[in-house]
Amino acid sequence: MKNYNFPRQNASPIYLEERDILGQVKPGGITRLKGFRFRTQKAPDLKVTYAGIGSRVIATFFDMIIVMSVLTIIDAFLFKFNFADDDFNTYRFFIVIFSWIFYNAAFECSVYQATFGELILKLKVVDLYGKRMSAFRSLMRCIVTIISILPIGLGIWYITTDPKKRAWHDLIAGTYVIKG
Description:
- By secondary structure, the protein is mostly helical.
- The chain contains seven helices and three strands.
- The protein has a domain of 118 residues.
- A three-stranded antiparallel beta sheet has the order 1-3-2.
- α2 crosses α3.
- The mean pLDDT is 78.
């Protein structure tokens, strides 16, 4: 009887191996998504009241009024309402977007953990452990909000189905919006 020194094949049957859409066997290492699930599973269950979609929309409406009124006043004094130039309107659009991102990121990572609209409704944005977010996490949360808004707002409507009332950008950033 001959003994060949071949490497031993994987003992698991082929149908149990995880494969991608092309039929290739996926690597066994931890992927980004699995690492994200692991992080959220280790987070403690917070004993708080989560903010629903209604209070979050009203807070966003108050924030829009604040940001747009400040930008309108600045526009009135600096740019004299010149709406004829299309390039200038493009700049206005980007100024509004960057102002909105900066406003949200700066106030949500501050000591108050909320924007002015959220302060009015007594809401806070916290991380998975109920603590204040870092500036980087807050900035990423504001930028990733685009992912929640673009597909017809499905990421925002996800708040109604999630037990902890989290939108897609909250899931990605690892945050909660709580009352209190």
